[in-house]
Amino acid sequence: MSRSSKAVVSFIVGAAVGVAVGYFLNSDKKDELVEKLRFQADKLKDKFRAKKQQFEDAMENELT
């Protein structure tokens, strides 16, 4: 693929993503989408904290 065709494809993909984001932000489902994203972010934070605690416990056990 040539450099100019990659640029055109990138532009089209970027424009499509922009349109999709704009649609969701202006739709009635915006609040629902934001709530789902917050929920998933909270779950990810909880998983990270649990893994961090496991790592800290394993390191402590290894050093004692």
From TrEMBL:
Coiled-coil stretches: 34-61
Spans traversing the lipid bilayer: 7-25
This protein's UniProt keywords: Coiled coil, Membrane, Transmembrane, Transmembrane helix
Keyword Transmembrane: yes
InterPro entries: YtxH (IPR024623)
Protein name: YtxH-like protein
Origin species: Chitinophaga niabensis
Upper classification of the organism: Bacteria, Pseudomonadati, Bacteroidota, Chitinophagia, Chitinophagales
